[in-house]
Design goal:
The chain is mainly alpha-helical. It contains two helices and no strands. Residues 34-75 are annotated as: Disordered.
């Protein structure tokens, strides 16, 4: 038997994921600042590209929060 769709805490979970992703971005930037002179340009570029993907993910998560807010208003 399938569980009922419980979306009551989705916004909270999404917000938590955004916070963790932002924290990871900050840590990656701090790592480059602290160790950039020991890293190859390729390694630094990989970290920067990963942060770009994280930023895109955050945009998507923010859109999901908007969707969840709209859904909760219809209930």
């Amino acid at each position: 038997m399938a569980k009922p769709d419980d979306r009551s805490d989705n916004m909270e979970k999404i917000a938590k994921n955004i916070g963790h992703t932002l924290q990871n971005m900050d840590e990656a930037n701090d790592f480059i600042k602290a160790h950039g002179n020991e890293m190859s340009e390729e390694e630094k570029q990989q970290i920067k590209e990963k942060n770009q993907r994280r930023e895109q993910s955050i945009e998507g998560l923010r859109d999901e929060i908007k969707d969840e807010a709209a859904f909760s208003k219809t209930r």
